[in-house]
Specification:
By secondary structure, this protein is mainly α. The protein starts with a helix and ends with a helix.
Amino acid sequence: MTMELAVDIMRNLLQTGLILAIPILGTA
């Protein structure tokens, strides 16, 4: 796995995590 691919995957996971966390934090 190249470094660029790893960074790209991490960025996608981060964005997905934020999208999922915002409504959860908003209702908590």
